[in-house]
Amino acid sequence: MQLLDGKFVSEKLKQEIAAEAAGVLATKGRKPHLVAILVGNDGGSETYVASKMKNCEKVGFKSSLHRYDNSVTEEELLAKIEEINRDEDVDGLIVQLPLPKHIDPEKVTEKIDYKKDVDGFHPVNLGRMMRNLPCFIPATPYGIMMMLEEYKIETSGKHCVVVGRSNIVGSPMSILMARNAYPGNCTVTLTHSRTKDLKNVVASADIIVAAIGKKNFVTADMVKPGAVIIDVGINREVSETTKSGYKLYGDVDFDNVSEKASWITPVPGGVGLMTIVGLLKNTLASAKKEIYG
Ligand code: NDP
């Protein structure tokens, strides 16, 4: 088994991004700028947003955070998005999910100017991705594709089984792995909670992408010897043995599955770090007007 090392790859790619960000500053007189909106105080969301902001600073981007408590109205939030859409100093805007129940995430996603939608969730970006046109690719799938590329993982003709069909991970991942490009050219099976005989479907995979949100869901008996394992899951559990007070687990039973896999991403230290790189790459591309002129 070999590790798909998110720490190593993300550090390397962030150095390249930092060099390009310096170029943007030199030519445009300003840094690439990412704005994040965070509503409420969900522990996971706090951590993700803090990490995104910290990484922006690391690569020489400007970052701004707008915080709201759970009582913010949908109107207030949409008005803020509108204001940021118009701000020429901003290249990328993300709204951390999940949002409180009284706010419609679809309305929020559609309100963001697709030219600043560096999370790649807007229907215009998803539609363009579907058609293989330049667009912002959702950050997690984008990060996974960079990881596969970095380790030159063979994908052509392979059977890729994606477990989970969310709009932000599973579904876009299935499209990217099936498209006529590298990484890609896979035969893809997209599975979910209604899939019959999931165990055997997953056991037939050359590449498994697990994006379910259930600790140790993919067990060794579901894995073909030599399979490539991409573990997207981030499951937080309270822990008395860690400084932060919690511990992270993937969707894959790493200890046992790693004995059968050819390549595997650890959690933490895998896909999560690459997601940040995806976000930074999209923000940089926006600042350089590479996608939407
Ligand atoms: P969602 O909850 O939106 O989707 C989960 C998917 O898993 C659904 O499609 C669901 O099926 C499917 N599922 C649930 N239970 C089963 C089951 N028993 N058998 C088969 N399929 C099942 O999750 P996300 O895609 O947003 O996230 C998935 C995981 O990835 C989470 O742990 C999340 O924290 C993590 N994540 C990690 C990121 C990173 O950067 N590493 C980024 C984003 C997410 P159905 O549609 O039928 O309900």
Describe the structure in your own words.
The protein has helices at 6-28, 43-58, 74-86, 105-111, 123-130, 139-150, 170-178, 198-203, 254-257, 271-287, and strands at 2-3, 33-39, 62-68, 92-95, 159-163, 187-191, 207-210, 228-231, 235-238, 246-249, 263-264. With 293 residues, the protein is an alpha/beta fold. It folds into two domains: 29-113, Rossmann fold, CATH 3.40.50; 139-272, NAD(P)-binding Rossmann-like Domain (Rossmann fold, 3-Layer(aba) Sandwich). Strands 1-11-8-7-5-6 form a six-stranded parallel β-sheet. Strands 3-2-4 form a three-stranded parallel β-sheet, sandwiched between helices. A two-stranded antiparallel ribbon has the order 9-10. β2 (33-39), α2 and β3 form a beta-alpha-beta unit. The protein starts with a strand and ends in a 6-residue tail after the last helix. Bound molecules: NADPH dihydro-nicotinamide-adenine-dinucleotide phosphate. NADPH dihydro-nicotinamide-adenine-dinucleotide phosphate binds at residues 140, 163-166, 168-170, 191-195, 198, 211-214, 232-235, 271-272, 275. Its EC number is 1.5.1.5, 3.5.4.9. NADP(+) binds at residues 164-166, 234.
Helix and strand layout, with pairings?
Elements: E1 2-3, H1 6-28, E2 33-39, H2 43-58, E3 62-68, H3 74-86, E4 92-95, H4 105-111, H5 123-130, H6 139-150, E5 159-163, H7 170-178, E6 187-191, H8 198-203, E7 207-210, E8 228-231, E9 235-238, E10 246-249, H9 254-257, E11 263-264, H10 271-287
Parallel strand pairs: 1-11, 2-3, 2-4, 5-6, 5-7, 7-8, 8-11
Antiparallel strand pairs: 9-10
Helix pairs in contact: 1-10, 6-10
